[in-house]
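Comment thread on ticket #2218

A.B. wrote:
> Attaching the input chain for the structure job we discussed in standup.
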Amino acid sequence: MISLIYLNPCTMKYLLVYSSRFGYTLKIAQTLEAQWTAAGITVDMVNLADEPFIQQGEYDKIIIGASIRYGHYASQLAPWIERHQQILNNTPSAFFSVSILANKPHRSTPQTHTYTRKFFTKSPWRPQLIGIFAGELHYAKYNLLDRYMMRLVMKLNKGETRLNAHIEYTDWQRVRDFGEEVLTLQLKK
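C.D. wrote:
> Ran it. Output below, let me know if you need it in another format.
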């Protein structure tokens, strides 16, 4: 008896590049990776710090996730985007930002999240989808300087300042919805 194996000729391949300072953006990236893998997508997840090199046509979709630290994304993000801008702008692509201050409704959209809006006014990349996710406050993960800087940021924004606090502000349904939107992304013509 001959056994036939049917391969899906339309297997999609995504690149998920992440930049994570304390591991929380990685956690969100892993959640999205699991969602897309469950949908039959092959996902290559790579740390931005490893400076991945990509070629045109290598991926069906490209997603970048980055965290905000003291008002800025990782210093490698803008140069990496500039080096790959043609590929990014010619491939369905998405971006998600993770920010502790996105836990406030008036800072949780691409239009109202100051850091993301400012970043994309200077960036040559125009992703089809941008997601803004609230992050995690976990003082025990931070070194002494980061702990006190984060406490100052939280105090100025009327947030949690107890140094033993550990709060996940992330709306996980919002993350899943973003993942679903990525599945339907297409290049705008």
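A.B. wrote:
> Thanks. Noting for the ticket: DSSP finds six helices and seven strands in the chain.
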